[in-house]
Amino acid sequence: MAARRTAVLNNRGGVGKSDMAVRLGAALAKRGRRVGILDFDPQGNASRRCGWRYDEEKPQLTVSEAVMANRVGTMAQVWTPVEWNIEYASRMTLAPAWLELENRMAEAGVVGNHLRLAKALQGADDHLDEVLMDCPPSLFHLTQMVLAAAHQALIVTEPEIDSILGAKRVRDFVAEKKATLHNDELVLAGVVVNNLDPAGKALEREQLGSIRRIFGDLVWDPVVHRRAALATADNQAIPLELTKASGAAPARATFELLAETYEKRSVTVA
Ligand SMILES: Nc1ncnc2c1ncn2[C@@H]1O[C@H](COP(=O)(O)OP(=O)(O)O)[C@@H](O)[C@H]1O
Ligand SMILES: [Mg+2]
Question: Three-state SS for 156?
Answer without folding.
Answer: strand
